[in-house]
Amino acid sequence: MTLTPIPFYILCGSLGAGKTTLLMRLLEHWKSRGQRTGVLMNEAGSVSIDGPRAGTLAEQVMNLAGGCVCCDTKEDLSWGIAQLVRDYASDVLILECSGLADPAEVIDAVTDAYTARLTSLERVIALVHPVSTEESHSGAYVTTQAIRCADELILNKRDLYVPGHWEQFRAGILEQNPYARLWETSHARLNVADLLTTYPSTQQPTLTNVVFSKSRPGHSQRAAYHPVATTIPLPGPLNRRRFLAWIKTIPKELERAKGYFRFAKEPELQEFQYALPGQATISPLTLLDEPEPALVLIGRGYDVERLRAELLATVENQLRTS
Fold first, then answer.
1. Can you tell me the distance from the alpha carbon of 245 to that of 242, in angstroms, rounded to the nearest whole number?
2. DSSP 71
3. Exposure string (b/e) for 239-278, b if CB count within 10 Å is 16 or more?
4. pLDDT along the chain (322 residues), means of 10
5. Most buried in the list 22, 74, 93, 268, measured by CB within 10 Å?
6. CATH code, domain with 183
7. Spatial separation of the C-alpha atoms in residues 97 and 107, rounded to whole Å
8. For residue 166, is it within any domain?
């Protein structure tokens, strides 16, 4: 039986920024809509503290305790997703990352060819607050990564800070990520339905408890942004010469690309891997359970549709001999 991939959300951000508070609001929303929500809780300690709270609203909670989901428990993440989709028939999944987990690595993990059969990455939601509680370089790095990867950036705990401090904090966030929608909240209070809806750049929703940042010169109120991960199905084998030429045109804003395909007139399945600063590998391999031919592109700030069209132009046309 072929399953339709279900929506998958990543909730990440600073230690102590209010992620679990927002998670509970999201779970209340999905439960009120009759959706079966599967939760993956990643906590750095060996015992889950927040999992039991989520279990009061979620259909099922999988605890990934004892390490960072981006490295120590990455295999558990894939296993947990499969179990929530196949055994518990979840309608939507959400992962709350540890404050020490690198969201970029998590995105890479959940967009592999096998996991993508079960879930579709819908949104990366990041919570940050002005005064950081991180005491280590790794914690500060993860917060920076969360800001950079976010589709929805929630600046929380506004009520605790004076206006001048807050404005400086917000300006710094805007510089780090010009693509995400920016929310300003206290106690992570916001309209969850609006958070989960993508609005056109010209449309301003009516909100009573969230203040959106003013637009910067040269930017619309809601700047258009591309998804972190874009999956491009490949309808046939690729022309080797054209594909190798396509690799040379990959823009610097594309940080990661991966996938499986075949070259025309070549029987081997090929695995493609690309990562900055421009290293690409193409390797033949044998898999018992082959995924559908596709490439996953991960990045922002580049022309997605143009790159998609140029990639699809490398598909071998049976009428061509080049």
1. 5
2. T
3. bbebbeebeeebeeebbbbbbbbbbbeeeebbbbebeeee
4. 83 86 93 93 50 58 61 70 91 87 86 87 90 58 88 90 82 88 91 82 39 36 57 95 96 91 95 88 90 90 92 80 43
5. 93
6. 3.40.50.300
7. 11
8. yes
